Amino acid sequence: MIDRRGVLRLSLAALAAPAAARAQGEGGSGGAAGANPAASGSAEAAPTAFPLADPTPFSPDMATNMARALAQAPFKPVAAGLPDPFKSLSYDQYVGVHLQPGAALWTKDNVGFAIEPLHRGFIFSTPMRIDVVEDGVARRLVYDSRLFDFGKPGPTGIGDIGFSGFRVLAPLEDGGFFELATFQGASFFRAVGRGLGPGPMARALAIKTADPAGEEFPFFRQVWIVRPTLADAALTIYAIIDSESVAGAYRFTLRPGETTLIDTESTLFARAALDHYGVAAMSATHVTGAIDRGRSDDLRPQVAEADGLQMLTGGGEWIWRPVSNPSTLQVSSFVDDNPRGFGLLQRDRDFSHYQDDDQHWENRPSLWIEPIGEWGAGAVQLVEIPSDAEVNDNIISYWRPKQTLPAKGEIAFAYRQFWRRSPPERPPLAAVSTSRSGRGSNGRRRRFVVEFSGGALASIRSKDDIAVKLSAAPGSIASQRTFFSPGQGVFRVLFELDPGGDVYSELRLVLEAQGKPISETWIYRWTA
After folding, report:
1. Whole-angstrom Cα distance, residue 13 to residue 41?
2. Is 209 within 8 Å of 278 (Cβ atoms)?
3. What percent of the chain lies above the pLDDT cut of 70?
4. Which helix (H) or strand (E) holds 87?
5. Residues whose CB falls within 8 Å of the CB of residue 51, separated by 6 or more in sequence, listed in order
């Protein structure tokens, strides 16, 4: 069964490539859902742009003031009903309808971006109000079915049903546009780096993720998209999220390039006390990888768009935690104070390790979070959900503040997202290049090999100068061997874990020289 998160993942991934292709081939048109005016037989000339509602004054603090006011009143969900032609669209029907050529905002205005409104339907029934801001004035974007094409005679007489979200398009050097970012579904959004495919999904806020009582999904109630200029080289989006427990004001600043940057400033206003909420949340697919390839019966060696969680602690320790597809739900907390960075990364870029000509997992972006300001005490949370379907985002990570947000309280966070092949900062240490595991010599033992490369290893000539600090709790290390290739700067640790009667073990490994770390710290949770 495909869960809600998985269906969202499936639909957005499938929409990305057609949108980019149409944008390049048709001068910036994109994909959504709607009606074909020519096919409907209407004699009225089709419009070439979405109408705008009457102007209202706009100021940068408007989203914050509105979110604060929302939180002071009981939560009211938006009406999500749809007219008959749209309420029961299948997945194939939804992705088969498109925005009319040239209907995306700003494609001919040379402002450095274009906006493609997305139709409601399929699982995207909740409307998102979209306002366009120019010269201090906001105008609501009004739905018009004639600007959409169903690919067959479409319905007529459809009123203003709004939109489910939008895509941000950026220009290509040789003309046309590519999909830079998508905001659609609850508070989900994602971006890509230039030349990369779709990868991890971000969300504005996670609430009670993996909680036995159930997860709460805030949604984008309204956004304001500020018309940029070519000189800006950035797009600013203000947004309000809302849910039963919290309302929030966000400001996103998008900057395209080899790395796509999204600066996020947020203020949360609590209706009810929050003791489990996640900041800078992200999710990714991991069905099978080098360390857990026995979990899946798949002809492809690996099926994953993220192979690990990287962390840079407030104390300056670099940590690498391979992620896995466990047999039972696993939640790990990495306690920290004022973290300096974390993210879900795709380190393995070798096509032969995936052998998937359709998905190209090796070409997925990593997502790195760099906190702005001090976040205080808390933990980087990692949730690993059992999954046998690649359409499910089963790996989730976020910063969970230690501080409870009381009812009527508010708190602010700011951070920068880097959507790129690797984090902008590499540790000045040997990094983990491979983590593999398999059955051990007997009984319940498990064999592991962890390979480090680069960093100080390049200047070390003897493995006797390297101290291996390896521990397991619970359980014990039954055997350990090391292999060093000085000319290549590669050091491998082969060991066996004896878990005894336990069903899990926390493993920790770091290389030292002269009493100081010369590698990042490898951490892994083995489960039966």
Report:
1. 33
2. yes
3. 90
4. helix 84-87
5. 142, 144
Model-wide pTM > 0.85: yes
Dig out the tokens for 133 from the structure: 């801001």
Phi, psi of 412 (to 5 degrees): -120, 145
Contact 217, 243 (CB under 8 A): yes
Residue type, 76: K
Q: Is-contact 223 248, C-beta < 8 A?
A: no
DSSP string of 258-298?
SSEEEEEEEEEEESS-BSSEEEEEEEE-EEE-TTSGGG---
- Do the beta carbons of residue 325 and residue 394 sit within 8 Å? yes
How much is the average pLDDT of 175-185?
Answer: 94
The pLDDT tens digits for 314-330 are 999 999 999 999 999 99
The pLDDT of residue 154 is above 60: yes
Compute the C-alpha angle 77/123/210, nearest 5°: 75
Residue that wins the pLDDT comparison between 149 and 24: 149
The distance from CA 453 to its chain's CA centroid, rounded to whole angstroms, is 28
Tally of residues, the chain: 528
- The predicted structure's pLDDT at residue 426: 83
Q: Which residues, in sequence order, are CB contacts of 372 under 8 Å at separation 6+?
A: 263, 414, 415, 416
Question: Looking at residue 77, what DSSP letter applies?
Answer: P
Residue whose C-alpha is closest to residue 240's, from 218, 262, 257, 256: 218
Q: Provide the percentage of residues in the chain whose pLDDT is more than 90.
A: 78
Looking at every residue in the chain, the average pLDDT score rounds to 90
- pLDDT tier, 413 (very low <50, low <70, confident <90, very high otherwise): very high
For the chain, domains (ranges, CATH) are 4-420 (2.70.98.10), 431-527 (2.60.40.10)
Q: Which of 350, 215, 361, 184 is nearest to 288 (CA)?
A: 361
CA dist., res. 127 & res. 162, Å (int): 6
User: Per the structure block, which two tokens stand in for 312?
Assistant: 């840079």
Contact 234, 251 (CB under 8 A): no
Peptide bond into 474 cis (omega under 30): yes
Pairing assessment for the beta strands 129-134 and 219-226 based on DSSP bridges: parallel
C-alpha closest to that of 418 among 275, 297, 299, 256: 256
